[in-house]
């Protein structure tokens, strides 16, 4: 089989367990992988790639991610969410909506954030959360992330909800923590729903329980959904065949806005990802796909 699954991960299970559930419905030699981990407490869109579509994982991961998150001010946690050891802030004041809105301005655009101590990042070959559970405090390197949209949708005392569109690698827990610190009262994340990854939306996501060996094939989505807003190079059927064979073709009349482009055939189907040389007009295929539809 070949294609993408848009699944709605339930709370209380890992992203890996969702992949395992899909794999059990396929032949043992099948390849299955997910594009973007959700913590066990989180729900929502989990894109699972099947067959050689697992090579699309890094491209899906680069798509913009959207979330609806619950934050609680006036407390702190060692995990930066409600699953950890929570310490209430004594006599925490209740900031008004206007003050919260003002504080949120610092979290829009390109920001630098430090990942949570309890994260899946590797430090010296070990997961940060494994080190944290043994009481080892590690120094995690701050990273730049892009927050393209951040909206306060509900504010009720110390409880609030926000909608966030962000780049890959963003920790929503870190935003809750850092927002609370900027207000001087602490903060943590109480809930998280991934509402979208690029064109994959939670409203259209299938439940993991609804998948069977018989329904899996019909649930597969086409590979071209992984393209997102990347520049496209439109090619003919004969050019698509050549590109799939690794041939570097010249397209002198093309002028993509970015050197990393995607070749698509006349039907709009994914041919492959590659690089375009503006000086020569030559397209260098890097990752091609022989499958033309979800099967």
UniProtKB/TrEMBL annotation:
Pfam families documented for this protein: TruB_C_2, TruB_N
Active-site positions on this chain: 39
MF annotations from Gene Ontology: RNA binding; tRNA pseudouridine(55) synthase activity
Top EC class for this record: isomerase
Location of the Pseudouridine synthase II N-terminal domain: 28-172
Keyword match Ion transport: no
Catalytic activity from the UniProt record: uridine(55) in tRNA = pseudouridine(55) in tRNA
Keyword annotations: Isomerase, tRNA processing
Record carries keyword tRNA processing: yes
GO biological process: mRNA pseudouridine synthesis; tRNA pseudouridine synthesis
InterPro entries named among the record's database cross-references: PsdUridine_synth_cat_dom_sf, PsdUridine_synth_N, tRNA_psdUridine_synth_TruB, TruB_C
Leader sequence segment: none
EC annotation from Swiss-Prot or TrEMBL: 5.4.99.25
Domain tRNA pseudouridylate synthase B C-terminal: 173-224
Primary role: Responsible for synthesis of pseudouridine from uracil-55 in the psi GC loop of transfer RNAs.
HAMAP family: TruB_bact (MF_01080)
Family to which this protein belongs: Belongs to the pseudouridine synthase TruB family. Type 1 subfamily.
Protein name: tRNA pseudouridine synthase B
């Amino acid at each position: 089989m070949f294609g993408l699954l848009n699944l709605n991960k339930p709370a209380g299970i890992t992203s890996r367990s969702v992949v395992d559930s899909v794999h059990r419905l396929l032949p043992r030699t099948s390849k299955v992988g997910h594009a973007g981990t959700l913590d066990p407490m989180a729900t929502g869109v989990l894109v699972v790639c099947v067959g050689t579509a697992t090579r699309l994982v890094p491209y899906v991961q680069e798509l913009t991610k959207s979330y609806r998150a619950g934050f609680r001010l006036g407390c702190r946690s060692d995990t930066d969410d409600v699953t950890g050891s929570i310490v209430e802030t004594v006599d925490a004041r209740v900031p008004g909506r206007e003050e919260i809105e003002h504080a949120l301005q610092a979290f829009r655009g390109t920001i630098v954030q430090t990942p949570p101590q309890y994260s899946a990042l590797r430090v010296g070959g070990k997961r940060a959360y494994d080190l944290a559970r043994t009481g080892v405090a590690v120094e995690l390197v701050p990273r730049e992330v892009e927050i393209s949209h951040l909206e306060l949708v509900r504010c009720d005392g110390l409880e609030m909800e926000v909608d966030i569109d962000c780049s890959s690698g963003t920790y929503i827990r870190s935003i809750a923590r850092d927002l609370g610190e900027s207000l001087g009262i602490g903060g943590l994340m109480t809930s998280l729903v991934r509402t979208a990854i690029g064109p994959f939306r939670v409203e259209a996501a299938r439940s993991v329980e609804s998948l069977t060996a018989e329904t899996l094939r019909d649930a597969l989505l086409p590979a071209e959904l992984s393209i997102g807003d990347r520049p496209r190079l439109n090619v003919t059927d004969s050019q698509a065949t050549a590109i799939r064979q690794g041939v570097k073709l010249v397209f002198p009349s093309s002028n993509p806005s970015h050197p990393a482009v995607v070749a698509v055939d006349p039907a709009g189907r994914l041919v492959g990802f590659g690089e375009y040389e503006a000086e020569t007009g030559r397209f260098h295929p890097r990752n091609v796909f022989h499958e033309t539809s979800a099967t």
